[in-house]
Design brief:
26% of the residues lie in helices and 22% in strands. The protein has 5 helices and 14 strands.
């Protein structure tokens, strides 16, 4: 019930997929130094959430679609198990329903995170499109039931973020859910951040427990981290 009005028909999707040509290039993030903003996590979070808020709704949708196309143009996800977070609307997050709907037509297997154990960790449940989702008390679309996923079985994790640096470290909302999750993954699992914005930042207060991404996808490019 939370995604049916946010996605296009298969025919429309295929047309968009054919017509939309997004320039894609893998770039070494170390070449981004001139674009860095040097702030601590709290300052970065405030600045980039304000930037996100200032994007017109149509621009957010366009960037979300471009990120979706970048993902499927550059990663072979067929038959793979992919962890996909669903957007918190009040935070104007990237519309990952576009990824979910297109992925289902391409034989991607999805698993959805859910905050459990008194709000201290993320569990995962295999996605079932039949009335599986409900809004949590935090406004997050989550599975209300389903078959639980082993974290070790996940091939790709799409990671929410507010901003990222040149080494693949991210600024999130400060709860640490994803850092804890990424520590539990298998060695084969690929971590992919999704960002509305192109520029990296310099995080002045990284922690020992922070886990870097392997890639970050923006509307215009894919950044690969060493």
């Amino acid at each position: 019930m939370f995604h049916s009005d946010k996605i296009t028909s298969n025919q429309t999707k295929i047309t968009i997929f054919k017509q939309l040509k997004v320039a894609t290039s893998e770039i070494e993030a170390d070449n981004e130094d001139q674009n860095k903003v040097k702030l601590n996590k709290s300052q970065i979070r405030k600045e980039f959430l304000e930037k996100r808020q200032s994007l017109p709704p149509g621009e957010r949708e366009n960037r979300s679609l471009a990120i979706c196309m970048q993902l499927f143009s550059n990663f072979d996800l067929a038959k793979k198990l992919v962890s996909i977070y669903l957007p918190i609307e009040k935070f104007h997050e990237i519309n990952t329903y576009k990824i979910l709907e297109m992925g289902l037509t391409l034989d991607v297997r999805f698993t959805i995170p859910k905050v459990e154990n008194a709000g201290v960790e993320l569990s995962h449940y295999h996605y079932d499109p039949k009335n599986q989702l409900e809004l949590s008390k935090w406004g997050i679309p989550e599975p209300k039931e389903g078959k639980k996923t082993s974290i070790k079985d996940i091939d790709f994790i799409l990671v929410p973020l507010v901003a990222f640096d040149s080494k693949g470290f991210r600024v999130g909302y400060g709860k640490g859910y994803y850092d804890q999750l990424l520590k539990k993954c298998g060695e084969h699992t690929t971590f992919i951040g999704l960002s509305y914005f192109e520029e990296s930042v310099e995080i002045t207060d990284k922690f020992v427990g922070d886990i870097p991404l392997h890639y970050c996808i923006t509307p215009q490019r894919i950044i690969k981290f060493d």
